[in-house]
Amino acid sequence: MSFFSKSSAPIYIAGPCSVESKEQLHQIARAFQSMPIQLFRAGVWKPRTRPGSFEGMGEQALAWLLEIKNEFNIPIAIEVAEPAHIELALRYQVDVLWLGARTVVNPFQVQRLADSLQGVHLPVMIKNPVTPDVDLWIGAIERMEKVGITDIAAIHRGFSTYAKSTTYRNEPNWIIPIELKRRRPELILINDPSHITGQSAHVAAMSQRAMDMGFDGLMIETHPQPSKALSDAAQQITPEALWQLIQGLNIRTPHLETSNQLAQLDFYRQLMDSVDDEIIALIARRMELSNQLGVLKKEMNLSAYQPERWREIIASKTHTAALKGLDPQLIKQVFEQIHDASINHQLGLFLDPTTSEK
Ligand code: PEP
Ligand code: MN
After folding, report:
1. CATH number of the domain that 284 lies in?
2. Confidence at residue 309, expressed as pLDDT on a 0 to 100 scale
3. Is 127 near ligand 1, meaning CB less than 6 Å away?
4. Is the CB of 198 under 6 A from ligand 1?
5. From the CA of 128, how far away is ligand 1's center (Å)?
6. Domain that holds residue 311
7. How many domains does the chain have?
8. In a shared domain, residues 146 and 178
9. Does 36 share its domain with 176?
């Protein structure tokens, strides 16, 4: 029997970003006993962006997780990034493995992991790669399938961008999980609102959005004292907050009486909403850059309005718009508004005596 199968009730996967202590695991597992959590997630080896951060407890964590599994009768999932991790996971009877976003970008590594999984019949979850590339994501899934892994779920955890947005730690780029669903409709698709938002206050809203988009489940990071967590402190929520979140979710049961077209209408509105959010985040990013430019212009005694530069912008943007089949007039108007706001902001800086010192 498959661990991952389609059902009308969402799959809930929860647990700490990283295993920190036996007591931490106990506190979480005890709280989960009265909640519909199907899988206990926990990081044993942590892929950290910079050296010097907490990198996980390793094998000791696996021994504690086995105790939790036996005492609370809950299946355990961990991230594996090396064949040696798989060997240890098997030794400590881990039930489900997942490949992290940083591993999935590397086909060599994914293949090494797939080779170690040959003949092992464990369910595997595959996070999206950090880069917004649906083929790379599907490629990792196919590498698992080719060695006989059939019990698979994909996890949407968002994508890295250079421009840091204030709303998301990792941009959702909904179009990518939707494309995955279009190409592989039978695949179980889980949303990870913790890594997408990066902020505990936004996890519930993102979870609801994922449910509205038709995801099959959620993976949510939980910690008894999130602010004391050794990794991802800002995004973890307490088991109590998780329980509230689950109880507050509006799970859409498919309305058979609703016409398919109505459902599609709704679906496209949801997508449109998230594109609008992305536009706003980009305009905000542009205004930040305008602010930096304004400070420089003030120091260099340049005027805020540079007609030459403005003519270039309009010419190049209307050209790009035309190449994309858009009305150049529309794009000209939009950019005129944005440019006006930007110049006004810079003029405000020129008047403010405090902005020349950095
Ligand atoms: C995690 O789930 O804790 C994790 C490291 O995730 P990701 O691979 O999505 O960054
Ligand atoms: Mn994490």
Report:
1. 1.20.59.10
2. 87
3. yes
4. no
5. 10
6. 261-357
7. 2
8. yes
9. yes
Whether 4 is in a domain gets the answer no
How much is the average pLDDT of 281-286? Answer: 92
The pair phi, psi for residue 286, each rounded to 5°, is -65, -40
Residue 128 CA, closest ligand 1 atom number: 9
Which residues contact residue 248 at a Cβ distance below 8 angstroms, ignoring those fewer than 6 apart?
204, 208
Residue 255 has pLDDT above 60, yes or no: no
CB-CB contact of 190 with 218 (8 Å):
yes
| pLDDT tens profile 299-339 | 999 888 888 888 998 999 999 999 999 999 999 999 999 99
- Considering every ligand atom, which ligand is closest to the CA of 46? 1
Q: What pLDDT, in 10s, does the model give residues 141-183? A: 999 999 999 999 999 999 998 877 778 999 999 989 999 998 9
Pocket test for ligand 1, best of 20, 39, 79, 128 (most atoms within 8 A of CB): 79
- CATH number of the domain that residue 203 is part of: 3.20.20.70
Closest C-alpha residue for ligand 1 atom 4: 100
- Quote the percentage of the chain above a pLDDT of 70: 96
pTM: 0.79
Same domain? For 201 and 290 the reply is no
CA-to-CA separations, 20 to 39, 47, 134, 229, 344, in angstroms, rounded:
18, 15, 33, 8, 51
